[in-house]
Amino acid sequence: MSELHGHCMCGAVTVSMTPARHSLGVCHCDMCRRWTSSMLMTLPASPGYAALGPVKTYVSSDWAERAFCAECGSALWYRITAPGKMHGQTQMAAGLFDNAGESTLSLELYIDKKPEGYAFAGPQRKMTEADVLAAFRPAAAEEDS
Q: How far apart, in whole angstroms, are the C-alpha atoms of residue 27 and residue 42?
């Protein structure tokens, strides 16, 4: 897949990445809705992405961090920090890239938290809060052992 180049709203942060696959994901969890005022739409990044400029990170849960531009506040990425097979997986904000990297919607997370005022059409996979949390439990259980 070809490398994508993007930037935040003010241009202070530039991002380069190769998508792990051309598929968009959407998260409707409480934190993503508060962060973006709707939902977070992302592209999965392959290892080796680069972000240059005033990047700030915020540890938003026991298993993840979020990054944003320190100048304009644009969302940059969501990264898994918990130990386990998903450690380091990074979801780049789709809005950083023109035409969202020409990707199609394939997954909606926390579908049971989505406000009633909007909906995406299509056959994308939909996971509830319980489905998403279950995906993280194996790593937590290994850590507790």
A: 8
